[in-house]
Amino acid sequence: MTVSHRRPILSVLLACALLAACSPAPAPQTATPQGIDINDPFEAQNRRVHAFNKGLDARVIAPVANRLRGSGERAPRDPDAPIGPLQMVINAGRNLSLPVKSVNGLLQGRPRDAGANLTRFAVNSTVGLGGIFDPATDSFGLSERDTDFGETLAVWGVPEGAYLELPVLGPSTQRDAVGQVVDLLIDPLYHLLDGREAGAVFGLRVASKAGDRARFGDTVDGILRGSADSYAQTRLIWLMNRRHDLGESGDDYDPYDDAQVLDPYEN
Amino acid sequence: MRTDRRGFLGLIACVGVAAVLPWRPAHALDANGAHALIDRSLEEVYQVINSGQPAAQMYQQFEAIFARYADVDVIARSALGPAARQADAAEFAAYRQAFQGYVGRKYGARFREFIGSRIEVTGARPLKSFFAVTSVAHLNGRAPMEVEWHVSNRSGQDLYFNIIIEGVNMLASERAEIGAMLARERGSLPALTAALQQAG
To answer: InterPro entries per the record (chain B) (predicted)?
Structure first.
């Protein structure tokens, strides 16, 4: 598949995502007692997708992840010891995500972040042997500035929209779903590479995400299988974390002033 | 008369001792105190993590550390929600005990992923009626994570009541979790307590 063939497909995807984002959501905004707003008008549909994702995780992703992890990667590692194959895949995939993160940094008016990501990409792609190793962090203290087009939209003042759980991709919002599609469209790598190379890049990035799942599987398993309502728990944790990353967290909660749980006359 | 005099002398002695003891104004918590509390708590947690004991023993010790440094009462109340105010005292006490064990096991299992890591306490600042202690968790092969601890003296002691990891607030997620469990037990607190004893 060449780049020019792919664009129409992506454009259709983008149009769908935009439609989803613009569709008038009834938006019954509810808030947790800790002041975390939850806007989930598509909850019934989201719960169906969640059940599908949970099944997929149990039957496909977790077994593969556990096998990958079986090679001793799970044990605590001496930071000076050589990294294993799993970490190499994670590193290489993450490295390939840096150009589009750099573009987003520019779109957000954060040239320093854009520069840091681009420098990382240059150092790790060469000295780090195609991004398998991370000399940018280890030798130059240059860590990744994680970002995406969802964050760019947030910086531009686009509201978060409703909560969505997407098939395979997992938790998102209307704003972030649009961001995920736009990230594919504006990724310089897909514009510079031909179809086969672009496919390889995409594959490696998916493998990297799967590797992350393998490494931090205990946490994911705990939420998906150990929780009384894994849908609600995933939604809450994801929203809190995402809003924290985007600087959109709400007010801090003080349980000592929560008359719902403490009798104010008791103290 | 003798007993009276002895009583009086005893009273004088007490006043003398009290005067010598450093007088503590009604638990004046400051940033340094909050910072020190989290330092001590983390030191104990890492001692357990690095002890290489069987998991079950580690979870018991995490529970003990949690009970020592956290305001278990307010955390358990907040997690239970409005039902906490209606609960019978004995039922609530049993729930609180079960909740404490559940936290020790649930978060204990997570702490095992922290082997070989370190958490650096970076500062403390006043926030509302309490203090926020900031720290950074350095885990192998992962970007440093922000961990914030909220410390209050409103229980009468300096204790932490919330942990926020990269924006994920422990009180909020436990309120959702315990709420879902309580709904599953059709609102029965003793049934929730029994379920918590198995969970985590």
So the answer is: MlaC/ttg2D, TAT_signal, TAT_signal_bac_arc, Tgt2/MlaC_sf
